[in-house]
């Protein structure tokens, strides 16, 4: 190789992590060619030379590219090329973005892209984890300003034992899917799905991961010390202090406090609009100040709200620190759908609709995890612009919508019945009617009630709530807020979402804007969310619907499941599907068969379902001599009548067995299309003949 590169190695959880620097992608600001086991990811960090004009935010993009060659697959469909990012890729990008974004300078406006190219996948080493570590390393060694490093560890739970960086199989089958990101001092991101894990056990897992992260951070620091580039200077987009001083002359602090102190979002927005007009008029001759005025007003509001909360313990809507906004819940608000529920918390309102379908309608998944090829439960979340009083054309779900839907889906998965208990595909859709903070948690509550209203026998009720945070100058100067609204989310330091049952946690998603949380903050937030979700379940959700309905909705399909010998599946299907199609045509049902011999019969009319089951049983069960059966005359011949007992099971009623009296002509007794009860009097296995009698039926 023409150029020299550096290789760094560290053993983590019994597997070797290898990082090559300066081996590939030399033109990126920073690049790490990283392997964990045989899983290989190229992580790069690039930044634009100049800031982007006309924006008041840091333009960070995180990409996670799943290449199917990494698992030896060719993409399906006509276009044999990877298309748009999968749901897993979007969610992974979000998990990488959330801990890293707060570590970039707040006044940095250069475009930054973190790209992760998954090139090979070892089932023993999850590629998502490798990409997370690669992004941190690539950014740390680059010349892009970044207050890292940060590190990430995943924790699984099997038979009560924690597993560090579990294999893909352990991750899919265990009771915990926890990802924790840390800086050298604090936890900076938590993402979890859990099978009703107690709060104390969850905290133990979080800080086990945090301790392991410290070793990884030390490893990254060694790499940075040897090959890290000096951080480049940049044009600061901070608001001039002179502008702040001029604004306060026109709008003193008490006026701004009065403007933001209201429990109505629209009132606050109107107050700020009037203040903005007054300031634009005052600074009409200063183009430089007008360009940054929106950001200055935002920061002025932020400082005002934070001071009110932290020092005066006053929230913008007047609530107590641990008080939840007014709650309301109702079910069956949408006619004819299989299940519906609406949950309202203050100015956040979600309507959820549940749809049940045969298992044939499960979602097929084509991704890098070969253990997961389908999804039986789907939760989709929609966030239209009218929910926040804005006008914007809908262009389909973005990353936020996909993330919120996945969080609510993860929250409810642990309480869903198994396919054997409830052989349905299930889809719930959350429609955001109104939004002012934590719609994903309202989605969790409404979808739980919608499932119960549809007759899905969930194991326990699930609710969710979000806690916020405002911090001061020291680690012990902070205040945790229960049920944050939009303003407290925008101006606060944390959005800590927790869902769960009465017994434990089912999901966590923690976003923060500061450089990490201390353990007391994490423990208080988890305790506060438990208290709040129990309150929501007892005072709001249970009065609306206390338990799943005993049967599915009248408009939902009815499904019965039977089990047959897997070796008999071919007989039920028949050559080119002829047998099963005959059953479907005659009974009007839908039929799904899996490889283990489970057959789901789905229909609207009970009689058709019963007939389909009878026909299937006739196919798979041997006929018994001396037993009566029901059949249909399909052919008349000189010597008798051919009767179909089941597809591919025909028997002959000899003319002498049609009646006790002498029969001159077969048609005198039976005709094609007649349904008759017959007795099996003889079975010739070798010849494949079945002899039937009409006259011997008792």
UniProtKB/TrEMBL annotation:
Q: Name one Pfam family in it.
A: S1
- Biological process (GO) annotations? mRNA catabolic process; RNA processing
InterPro entries on file: ExoRNase_PH_dom1, ExoRNase_PH_dom2, ExoRNase_PH_dom2_sf, KH_dom, KH_dom_type_1, KH_dom_type_1_sf, NA-bd_OB-fold, PNPase
Q: Where is the S1 motif domain?
A: 626-695
Q: Provide the top EC class.
A: transferase
List the molecular function annotations (GO) for this entry. Answer: 3'-5'-RNA exonuclease activity; magnesium ion binding; polyribonucleotide nucleotidyltransferase activity; RNA binding
Record SUPFAM superfamilies:
Eukaryotic type KH-domain (KH-domain type I), Nucleic acid-binding proteins, Ribonuclease PH domain 2-like, Ribosomal protein S5 domain 2-like
- State the SMART domains in the record: KH, S1
Q: Which PROSITE patterns match?
A: KH_TYPE_1 (PS50084), S1 (PS50126)
CDD domains assigned to the protein according to its UniProt record, in alphabetical order: KH-I_PNPase (cd02393), RNase_PH_PNPase_1 (cd11363), RNase_PH_PNPase_2 (cd11364), S1_PNPase (cd04472)
**ATP-binding in keyword set:** no
Task: Fetch the PANTHER family from UniProt.
Answer: POLYRIBONUCLEOTIDE NUCLEOTIDYLTRANSFERASE (PTHR11252), POLYRIBONUCLEOTIDE NUCLEOTIDYLTRANSFERASE 1, MITOCHONDRIAL (PTHR11252:SF0)
Name listed for the protein in its UniProt record: Polyribonucleotide nucleotidyltransferase
| Phylogenetic placement of the source organism | Bacteria, Bacillati, Bacillota, Clostridia, Lachnospirales
């Amino acid at each position: 190789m023409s150029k020299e590169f550096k290789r760094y190695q560290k053993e983590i959880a019994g597997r070797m992590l290898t990082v090559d620097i300066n081996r590939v992608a030399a033109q990126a600001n920073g690049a790490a060619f990283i392997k964990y086991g045989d899983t290989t990811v190229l992580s790069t960090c690039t930044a634009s030379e100049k800031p982007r004009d006309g924006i008041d935010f840091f333009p960070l993009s995180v990409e996670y590219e799943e290449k199917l060659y990494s698992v030896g697959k060719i993409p399906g469909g006509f276009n044999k090329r990877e298309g748009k990012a999968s749901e897993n890729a979007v969610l992974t990008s979000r998990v990488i973005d959330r801990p890293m974004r707060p570590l970039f300078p707040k006044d940095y406006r250069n475009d930054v892209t973190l790209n992760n190219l998954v090139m090979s996948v070892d089932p023993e080493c999850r590629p998502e984890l490798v990409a997370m570590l690669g992004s941190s390393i690539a950014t740390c060694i680059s010349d892009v300003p970044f207050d890292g490093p940060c590190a990430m560890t995943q924790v699984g739970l099997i038979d009560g034992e924690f597993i560090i960086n579990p294999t893909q199989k352990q991750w899919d089958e265990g009771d915990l899917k926890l990802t924790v990101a840390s800086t050298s001092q604090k936890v900076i991101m938590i993402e979890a799905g859990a099978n009703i894990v107690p709060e104390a056990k969850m905290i133990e897992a979080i800080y086990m991961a945090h301790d392991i992260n410290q070793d990884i951070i030390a490893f990254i620091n060694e790499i940075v010390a040897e090959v890290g580039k000096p951080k480049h200077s940049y044009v600061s987009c901070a608001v001039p202090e002179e502008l702040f001083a001029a604004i306060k002359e026109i709008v003193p602090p008490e006026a701004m406090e009065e403007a933001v102190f209201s429990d109505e979002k629209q009132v606050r927005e109107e107050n700020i609009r009037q203040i903005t007009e007054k300031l634009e008029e005052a600074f009409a001759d200063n183009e430089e100040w007008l360009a940054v005025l929106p950001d200055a007003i935002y920061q002025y509001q932020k400082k005002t709200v934070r001071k009110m909360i932290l020092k005066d313990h006053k929230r913008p809507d007047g609530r107590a620190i641990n008080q939840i906004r007014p709650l309301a819940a109702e079910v069956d608000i949408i006619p004819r759908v299989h299940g519906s529920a609406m949950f309202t918390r203050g100015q956040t309102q979600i309507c959820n609709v549940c749809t049940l379908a045969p298992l044939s309608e499960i979602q097929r998944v084509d991704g890098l995890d070969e253990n997961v090829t389908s999804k039986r439960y789907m939760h989709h979340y929609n966030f239209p612009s009218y929910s926040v009083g804005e006008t914007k054309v809908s262009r389909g779900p973005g990353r936020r919508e996909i993330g919120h839907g996945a969080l609510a889906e993860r929250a409810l998965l642990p309480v869903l019945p198994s396919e054997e208990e409830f052989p349905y595909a299930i889809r719930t859709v959350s429609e955001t009617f109104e939004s002012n903070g934590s719609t994903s948690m309202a989605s969790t509550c409404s979808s739980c009630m919608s499932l119960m209203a549809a007759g899905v026998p969930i194991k326990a009720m699930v609710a969710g709530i979000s806690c916020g945070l405002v911090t001061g100058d020291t680690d012990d100067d902070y205040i945790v807020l229960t049920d944050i609204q939009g303003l407290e989310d925008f101006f606060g330091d944390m959005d800590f979402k927790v869902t769960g049952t009465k017994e434990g946690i089912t999901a966590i998603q923690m976003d923060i804007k500061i450089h990490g949380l201390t353990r007391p903050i994490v423990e208080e937030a988890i305790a506060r969310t438990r208290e709040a979700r129990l309150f929501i379940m007892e005072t709001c959700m249970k009065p609306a619907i206390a338990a799943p309905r005993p049967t599915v909705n009248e408009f939902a399909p009815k499904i019965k499941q039977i089990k047959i010998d897997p070796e008999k599946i071919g007989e039920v299907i028949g050559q080119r599907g002829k047998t099963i199609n005959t059953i479907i045509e005659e009974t009007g049902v839908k039929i799904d068969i899996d490889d283990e011999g489970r057959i789901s019969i789905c229909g609207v009319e009970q009689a058709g379902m019963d007939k389909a089951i009878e026909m299937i049983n006739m196919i798979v069960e041997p006929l018994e001599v001396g037993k009566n059966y029901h059949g249909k005359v399909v052919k008349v011949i000189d010597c008798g009548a051919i009767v179909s007992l089941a597809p591919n099971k025909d028997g002959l009623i000899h003319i002498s067995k049609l009646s006790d009296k002498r029969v001159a002509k077969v048609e005198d007794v039976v005709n094609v299309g007649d349904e008759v009860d017959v007795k099996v009097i003889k079975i010739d296995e070798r010849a494949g003949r079945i002899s039937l009698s009409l006259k011997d039926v008792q």
